[in-house]
Amino acid sequence: MEKYGYKLTTLISNDEIQRRIKVIADAISEQFKDEIPILIGVLNGSFIFISDLMRKLNIDCEMDFIKMSSYAGKESVGTVTLLKDISADITGRHVIIVEDIIDSGLTIKFLRDRLEGANPKSVTIVTLLLKTDIAKLDFEVDYVGFEIPPEFVVGYGLDYNQKLRHLPEIYRLEE
């Protein structure tokens, strides 16, 4: 499909995304049924995912956001820059990091280390997409929506130079 001057191929439909988010939300609701966790969304990409996830939870929760940068176009720049920090005090709290995608693992490692430095009660990691072939992690990701190949994807919050986030499905961006 050609859209907005880009060649796009559907990788994951919106129906598949919503079904998987429901499974994850049910598991999180069970895990934290007697708690009030705080979800920390990683901007900008996670805003649609965290919104859909929160609406499917069966528990009370709070929400905050953090913004980091590690990409220029399709390439990782190899470092993480903190652009906006969380405003909530997470000391002694159950924290759920909500990521759109874990690619190399650089951003999630940085974020996990940063949040653990604030002495939360626990840190749980949720990602919609995981590129298992290239993610270099020395810890487990607690909830993964979909494992995907090492391709550049857009839609459902994920962008290419701040474009294509609004698309309702996950697409491969092809040259």
Task: Flag low-confidence runs.
Answer: none
What is the SS-derived class? alpha/beta
Strand order of the largest sheet: 5-4-3-6-7-8
Can you tell me the CATH architecture?
3-Layer(aba) Sandwich
Whole-number mean pLDDT: 93
How far from one another are the termini?
Answer: 12 Å
Strand content bin: 35-45%
Question: Can you offer a commentary on this structure?
Answer:
The strands form two sheets. The chain has a six-stranded mixed β-sheet with strand order 5-4-3-6-7-8, sandwiched between helices. The protein has a four-stranded antiparallel β-sheet with strand order 1-2-10-9. Helices cover 22% and strands 38% of the residues. The model has no long low-confidence stretch (mean pLDDT 93). With 175 residues, it is an alpha/beta fold. The protein is globular, with a radius of gyration of 16 Å. The chain starts with a strand and ends with a strand.
